[in-house]
Design brief:
The protein is built from 5 helices and 8 strands; from the N terminus they run H-H-E-E-E-E-E-E-E-E-H-H-H. The protein is of the alpha+beta class.
């Protein structure tokens, strides 16, 4: 998985003809890489492939607390949406037990367990417990825009797109060359299309392989 600096090195050396990085240093190119990464996130979101699975570290929920954002935000910084939640006594080595998702808050008395959860208003809410609980949050996470030169991109096989898109912005706004920028953006567009085609095909394969196909003849033969 490439770092931000490696992406910018490729952008300068391949697309901007500046291998020694005399003009297009990391400092110059980093804002353009951030813009290119946001472009990528938008395209991934259009295809519904911008989220990846994650499991949180153990989250301690104080007694009587009924929300993961109040008081204090206990949600992971890259949290997008929950998938499932498990709980156990805080500080114990007990196995986690699943909590049940509800559509709305439940008007019930608090017990020593949280038991239920809902996701509403970008917050995970529950009835609260009379004891301190520990939960595991299974969730979909979003990708974060690289901030420093050593930040990993977070995805594989997007280097060609990001380096070209970054270089395209630099050619347009630093070199002031629309012709060169459009040429480089063309490479970026092809790289993005190739990447999205592979990702979408992978998602379709995951959906299809869950269903075993039986011909009409085979189905009739088992009756």
């Amino acid at each position: 998985m490439a770092s931000a600096s490696e992406i910018m090195q490729e952008a300068a050396g391949i697309f901007l003809n500046d291998t020694p990085r005399t003009l297009f240093t990391d400092v110059i190119l980093l804002p353009f890489l951030k813009r290119a990464f946001k472009d990528l996130l938008l395209e991934l979101d259009k295809k519904n492939i911008s989220q990846t699975k994650e499991v949180s570290a153990a989250i301690t929920v104080p007694a009587l607390v009924v929300s993961l954002t109040t008081p204090g935000n206990l949600l992971p910084t890259n949290f997008i949406t929950p998938v499932k939640i498990e709980e156990r006594s805080s500080g114990s080595s007990d196995l986690y037990t699943p909590m049940e998702e509800k559509d709305w808050e439940t008007n019930i008395l608090q017990t020593e367990r949280l038991r239920y959860w809902i996701f509403r208003e970008d917050d995970i809410k529950f009835p609260g417990a009379t004891t301190i609980r520990q939960i595991l949050l299974y969730y979909q996470k979003g990708l974060t825009v690289p901030v420093t030169l050593t930040d990993p991109i977070g995805l594989v096989n997007v280097e060609s797109y990001l380096s070209a898109q970054t270089a395209g912005y630099a050619a347009k706004f630093i070199l002031q060359s629309d012709t060169r920028a459009e040429t480089i953006f063309g490479f970026a567009s092809k790289a993005l299309n190739d990447y999205l085609t592979i990702q979408v095909r992978g998602l379709q394969f995951q959906d299809n392989r869950r269903h075993r196909y039986l011909s009409k003849f085979r189905r009739r033969s088992h009756r």
